[in-house]
Amino acid sequence: MSLFGLGSHSSLMASPIAIIQGANRGLGLEFCKHILKNKTPASVIATCRNPDGAVDLRSLVREHPDRLTVLKLDVNREEDIREAAERVKSSFGGVDLIVNSSAILHPTGKGETSLRDVSAQGLISTLTTNTVGPLVMAKHFAPLLQKGGGGFGQQPVEKVKQHSGIIINITAKVGSIGDNGLGGWYSYRMSKAALNMATRNLSIELGRSRPIVVCVSLHPGTVNTDLSRPYHRNVPKDKLFSTQHSVNCLMKIIETLNIEKTGKVYSWDGNELPW
Length: 275
Prior knowledge:
This protein is an alpha/beta fold. Helix content is about 35%, strand content about 15%.
């Protein structure tokens, strides 16, 4: 599978372009599938750390060779993000949507249940992937979102209220400070709470300039992925979502977004979550 082997696509900005960061599995992979199936003729740029080992993405490329591009990007490495942004700029010109979907619960795969389990390295690793990575993505891709065509979301008639692009940060309900009644999971909760603050800050800064970039955090529910698998026995069956169901719900929300909704956190059902 070639990386970015589709030539120059600046002329394609009339068609929506989405970047899915963390696209090799789980929600990220499902976002790619959903957009390719339901958002014709949108193009998707899928990023992951190891494209050669991303079997499902390779299969998608064979199905959609003209609409899907795969880029090597480790969200923990700013140099990777910077280089990816430069390549997207040279070949596509702009971007309409970025979904930051990669996340870890904890380097050990299990959330801390008490202070005894907390380690500096665990905190740093989790925050780097879940919070720092998405913010650095915004740093390097915001100029491209400002050159987007507003191909996702809901555009009002008044040009001054239209947006050029959307940033979606996949958050979690456990990142809500107001909703936290159980404690535990220090690293993951802190990383998602901090991500929500980053989303809010981005919405303010990118809402001041013209064109406007809408920035929202979305909670996907409890999804049947590797991240949540150790805790499935505690989740009622009707509350454990497939990636397809979760992404269907999230995409419905994304297609209703406008500048009035920027800077907020929404659950999979469309309800606003408390900070």
